[in-house]
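Standup notes
- HV: blocked on the assembly model, inputs below
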Amino acid sequence: MEESPINPSTPKDEVELNDEMKIIDAPSVPVPTAAGATSPEDDPLNGILQRQRLLRQQQQQKQQLQGRIRVRQQKLKMTFFGYIMVLIFFAMLQFIGVITFTQGFLLSRNVLPDIADSQLDPQLVMSTPPVYDKMILLVIDALRFDFVIPVEDENEKGKPYHNQFPVLYEMFQKYPENSILLKFLADPPTTTLQRLKGLTTGSLPTFIDAGSNFDGDAIDEDNWLLQLHKHNKSIAFMGDDTWKALFTEYINPDLFFPFDSLNVWDLHTVDNGVIDNMMPLLEKKRQPEWDVLIGHFLGVDHVGHRYGPDHNAMKPKLSQMDDVIRQVIEKLDSNTLLCVMGDHGMDSTGNHGGDSKDELESTLFMYSKNKKSGFKRMDQSEYNVDDLGANFRTVNQIDLVPTLSLLLGLPIPHNNLGSPIQEVFGKNFQEASIKTTKQIQKFRTVAGLDEDESLNDIYVSIIEGGSDPSTIEFSKAYQSKFLEQCKAMWATFDLKLIIIGVLILFASFTFVVTYSRLIPSVRVSTMSFEFIGSVIAMMLLGLVLSFSVYVVLGPVDFSFRRCAAIGSSIGIFVGLWAPIMDRFSVAWLLHQLYDFFIYNFNGWSVLGISFIIGHSLIFASNSFVVWEDKMIHFFIQTFGFYCLAQCTIKISSKKERVLAIAHCISFLIMSRLISGITLCREEQQPYCQSNFQTSWWSILGLYGVALILPRMVKSFYTLSDSYHSAAPLWIGTGLTFLLYGNAIYWTLEYVQSNNGGDSAYVIIEWLENFKIVNDELPINRILTNLQSIFSSVSKTIFLAVSVGEPLIVSIKLAIARISMFITLILANYSWSRGPLCVKLSEQSPSDDYLAEEVSDEDASNSNSKKNSVVILGYQNVYGSSYFLLVLNFAIPIMLVTKPLGAISLSMLLIQILTLLELFQILNLRGNLISPVMFGLIAYQHFYSTGHQATLQSIQWDVGFITTETITFPFTHLNLALNTFGSFILISIAVPLITLWKIPPSSKPITVLSQIVTNVTSLLTYQTIISTSSLAFAGHFRRHLMVWKIFAPRFMLSGILLLSMNVIMIVITVWFGSGKLLTQVNRIFGK
Amino acid sequence: MPTKAKKSVSFQASTTDELKEETNAESQVEIPFNSSALLVPFHLPVILGFIFNGLLENPRTLLIQGIPTLVAAQFGYGILITKRFKSSNTNSKKKSKSSNNNNKNNNNTPILLVGSILISILLSIPLFIVIILFGAPLYGLLTETFLLSVHLSLILFYPILVSYKLDFAQFLQSFTPGSGDQIYQQLYKNQLIFASIGGVVGAWFGVLPIPLDWDRDWQQWPITILVGGYIGSLLGSILSLPFSE
């Protein structure tokens, strides 16, 4: 650009401004200047006339051009509109399918509104007056059973959570007649809301409630708080605000102190709040204010969520709990019953929600100073604390309900399924047990569940038995048997809805496969408006039909909404198929399919189809679902090696072959590295080792990513000579800067979560382990000096962190918010203005092998030996620009992903680029394998970013990256970006299969139709996976593992299908491809 | 748009043409031996049977013990292959270069066989890396993985090495880039190569039963893959028979 004879007045920057007119000017500029250079010297007047004529011509040309361009732009916009509408209809169809299935599959329990009333029937309460007139119930969230029993560790260091909370066991040993310690078995799902429902109503909350943990709705079932309220008792409460949603109306408003429960990063606010509000109430003079005091501590649970149980923060937290319980015991008077318990446990990562042993096993401790309490232990061998208390006596969590009710002189809640705890009642156990049996029998009768004659027989014999000791055993048998029945029964599925849901999804699959693969893509582009018309008409027809069916036939178990949904889905389906059937016949489509297998069938299509089939068959076996991550990796590597073989055999040019083989090998190595990052699910044990932890070297890796990733992307851009204008700004500046921002964010987070000094402490420890053999060696003296230096440094860091914690928090928030704002809003806005990665450059004709000449004709006309103007990066105009959009979304997703996951995602970007190069080299753009591979690597990165298809693996803590409390929509956005990050990236990146390395096309509609083909192909793939997953989940609904394996996987599939639809419509087609194609067409469309 | 795209990579066109000519000249690549039912590796299932006896309790030692047996059997198999070599007359018609090689190697059958075995054991290292890349565990089971790769390498590479008399150039001729469909013909007409492909496919399918939660002994790493490789190459060899001339 130094000497520019063609248009010296146009500086480089202006050309790159992407201003429409200037670029269009560029090709036509050489003509007048070339003419002007020769003519004025001959005849000035003639020259002026000529120039005027030329100018006029030029203006006319320009107007014509503009007119043509406008028409073409309009046409392009209409085509876009058509595609988007069709995709929206399709998404609606799938939405109805998934929702219908979900309603049939996720169970709901029939809640009986009956309430036990002891005024009507005094028989419901115990005959003897209650021993206790007050109760203190302390819930310590996530108090796993092995936290409270003595554990002898082999190695002296031990776990930070063992032997820190000894008070309960001490009391248990000391007062055999006044205390009892039991293992407390929760029912899944182990989320706090469900557990509170179970602990108060005595029934079994179902799975669908698990989703409402964020906004628990008031409880309308009979429960012992309600009973207390009815008996005019005053309930004081402090702690977890989940209780607020459930029980506000029963709690004494003067003694009600709820605290925000979901901010898991805050370890102390709730606990300190409980202690500060509880202790005054325990004083003698304030005791009459309450009858039952409930405290719910959350600290232990939050330590688990934030750091995991193995963290040092667990130690002081458990000691604090120990302290609190000791104080409470001290202040206890003789008429008060103390009850300490956990609502669930935690798994080895500190999370809960599922049904593994560690999550289910919690603690129950009851104690009273009253001499009359008369607790009666069973045989001592029942209370065996060896082996982490594996054989310790266990009671069900719901057993607490009849126990507390009867002890406090209340009737047992109507829907209770628990049995009274034997030890607590001592000699009164028989009466308690029979009372419970009567309550359960009543529940059975009212609920219409009393068909089982064998249970009825047992009941009759209990009633006839009277005070015979054998009735105790009968009662126990009766209760446990009925509980089992209920557990099995409340897994009632609505098979009709399940089948309809799967059928709708299958229908959507038949359409999308025809739309994407069987009809030529150019034909599809002309059919959009027929689709729109027929779908709207048919949907209305379907609605009317379903309405009339609803009115006339009045189906019993179908609500109107359900009828309408099914009607409109049939309408959409028919509407989508009608135009296809109008133009093509079934025979033609089948022939098309046959043709595909005969002519288009090569190794790649075989691979693509077998991957799809293989992946969809995974759901037929629970083991394969469990090991899905490895299976996906196996598929990906198969592709990689096939690619390698093909590159070696097929590519003739040596230079290209070497490049292609290098791409293959780097792809293979990268995906192996990625598959090394795993967070094992429980079922994968013992064959799997989790390594998804935030450690200092993963933080270091983030800095490595910030250093390397921009360079790698740059090198891919230079391959097509596209690293110009917008690219350096986006990649060189923006990406680098923001990635360093991410790294700093996670460093601060790491420093904060490890109390800063910890990492330094680790170094010191390591140095100390370095046995100093010989003090005289100078190296050892240096080491000793280093030790002292490090210890002082660590102390300084520790101090700085403890002083500067608020500072760190605000810096973290600032980084996260700035990064989110820049990437999601600023960068996307500026991208929508259409940045191109091209540069005007001049070259002598001899070395223009790199780029397309702009003006072939002009050059030949002037017949000069002048240097020609070339546009660098012309060959990859679309791809280079579109990838910037992918980067816009990659950065925020990497921010909300934990360090190892962010490293994996950075490799995802490289993998995408490598795949694109390979698709281009091997000419696979139109092949089925390309979108399938994109789908597979999305799954691979779902697993390597610390996720599994389980509810426990949702990384709730990233919700608080941009805000300190739960704020809609930021918390939710973070969680969505974290959980579905790889799928979002892949969904956005899929048009690159078409766009990468193609020059501007004069037929943008053709390019668009190819993009839509790839988008719908990826959708087809996901539709098959989801449909198969849903169908198998429905099929295995009675499988032992359904709630552990199949149901979470179906939820993942359903959400994925819907969110991919939304992302591809809104971001990929409408925003991304739309802006880019119109922009490039405006500039280059001649 | 594809026509335009070519412009940027114009150097490709000339080289392709050159290579095309080359390939046309050598389009009829010779298979250096006569296929026969005798060349079906019937010894493989026998060895597998020997190894399998006790493999379930202790895969590592049995795999190690199996290697000498396999080497001995493959040695014998190698002799069978050399017996089936096409006479040098037919070869010399096509190419003088290879006939020279033939004459040399024909005299050194033992060296050829021993060399092939050594080379296939060496080739087990890249194969080991390939198995790791496919997702073999990195913790604890590396020895088993390596033993597996030695076994597979002896089964997959050794017969090909012997049949081409360690002449890599001649082997590559059957895979000349750009020869298109002919490659596939070469593949299934060549009994030994097809057996190797069968072995690879067998090993690939051998992976699939591992995740199942049946808790069977034979699901241990790497038994299924080993069995898949053995049986696959046997089947491949048999399936190739009808196609060979």
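- HV (later): unblocked. The longest strand of chain A covers residues 361-368. The interface with chain B takes residues 621-624, 626-627, 630-631, 633-634, 637-638, 640-641, 648-657, 668-669, 672, 675-676, 689, 849-852, 875, 997-999, 1001 of chain A (CB under 8 Å).
- Next: hand off to the docking folks.
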